[in-house]
Amino acid sequence: MNVMEARFGSHLGVIAATVRAGFRFRYLPSLAEIDAVQGFRVRAGAMDVYLVRAEQDALAARFRVDDLEDPVPHAIWHRRGSVAGVVAELLALPAHGAPGAPKAPLRCREVGWIFGRRSCP
Question: How many other CB atoms sit within 10 Å of the CB of residue 2?
């Protein structure tokens, strides 16, 4: 096991699981380096997305695709915490529309990041 795997193993493992689950990625650069990584996928009428800035600084949310035309749609689920925890919870959500899946829009809570805003209007 190399140093990177030892330090980031659980985080890299859960991100690898999102690759297998069909997520695509974009990298948000700063002037000096990559500032954040954003993973997203659209399936079953929902968009699942997560943003990773550091091991303990990750955000994840689910939005209904039909709501994405709103300037700042409300998430139907969201979490903030460690990469391993947040992304694992996102992957564990039932498919949109399945029994037990979140469906009611929440009031905006820290999800403006997905649309390039710090908070909702």
Answer: 7
- CA gap 6, 30 in Å, rounded: 26
Q: CB of 103 within 8 A of CB of 51?
A: no
Alpha-carbon torsion 26, 73, 55, 53, what sign? Answer: positive
Domain ranges of the chain: 3-115
Angstrom distance (rounded) from CA 91 to CA 115: 21
| Terminal Cα distance for the chain, rounded | 46
pTM given for the model: 0.80
Which residues sit opposite 10 in a β-bridge?
none
Q: Which H helix or E strand runs over 73? A: none
- Going by their DSSP bridges, the two strands 46-54 and 57-64 should be labelled as antiparallel
Please give the DSSP secondary-structure letter assigned to residue 40.
Answer: E
Rounded Cα distance between 52 and 81, Å, is 10
pLDDT (tens digit per residue) in 45-102: 999 999 888 889 899 999 999 988 887 788 999 999 999 999 999 999 999 999 999 9
